[in-house]
Write a structure and sequence with these properties.
With 210 residues, this protein is α/β, with parallel strands linked by helices. The chain is built from 6 helices and 7 strands; from the N terminus they run H-H-H-E-E-E-H-E-H-H-E-E-E.
Length: 210
């Protein structure tokens, strides 16, 4: 969402996103590894330290972009927005901003309590015959063999078990980013398949979108 979590950058981006919602376009956001409690938050002129933001400040600034009116996870910034009786958006917060000290943590992980919350809500969706589209900043699976070894930090920790748990809960599609690449891959286990639809960053050429 931002270069390094600067509060002023978040507030500015929120005003830009508001131009979309003013036109009736629904916008849903989830934090990335740069966005919260970032020790690298600096002014763009003179490199003076500036305020970053805390998790609840993120939810407040982007309240109109997924958080307001959503069902919130008590242990992360994950949420479910019920667009309709037949479609929900699941935003999964897998960032490790609470561990940020001298530098932002690149990698991500789905907390056990958050995973339990996801399973509970997916059970509700399944009982109501609701389609759930999920999104997360970090990849839920490797996009090439050995990615996690050659370029660590871009796939969530323990990704095989996390992907399997989400599949078993009923998630079929996960929209991700983080790796600044456009790619789609799949993971199959126990007769079920999960797609990771990874889209590159808007802030790096050629500014891809889907």
């Amino acid at each position: 969402m931002t270069k390094d979590g600067e509060q002023v950058s978040h507030e500015t981006l929120a005003t830009i996103l508001k131009q979309l919602t003013n036109k009736g376009i629904k916008v849903f956001v989830i934090p990335g590894n740069h966005d919260i409690r970032n020790p690298y938050a600096f002014s763009f002129s003179g490199l003076a330290p500036v305020n970053s933001i805390l998790p609840e400040e993120f939810a407040s600034i982007y309240g109109n972009f997924g958080f307001n009116g959503s069902i919130r996870d008590a242990n992360s910034l994950s949420y479910i927005n019920k667009i309709s009786d037949k479609l929900w958006i699941l935003g999964i917060d897998a960032c490790k901003y609470l561990d940020n000290t001298t530098e932002p943590i690149i990698g991500g992980a789905i907390k056990p309590l958050t995973m339990n919350w996801i399973k509970e809500k997916m059970g509700e969706a399944r009982n109501k015959n609701v389609m759930v589209l999920a999104m997360m900043h970090h990849g839920i699976m490797e996009h090439y063999q050995g990615q996690n070894l050659l370029d660590p930090g871009y796939v969530v920790d323990d990704w095989q078990n996390s992907a399997t748990a989400l599949m078993n809960a009923g998630i079929k599609v996960m929209f991700t980013g983080h790796y600044h690449a456009n790619d789609i891959t799949e993971f199959t286990a126990n007769g079920k398949t999960l797609l990771d639809i990874e889209t590159g960053s808007l802030v790096s050429w050629p500014s891809p979108y889907r």
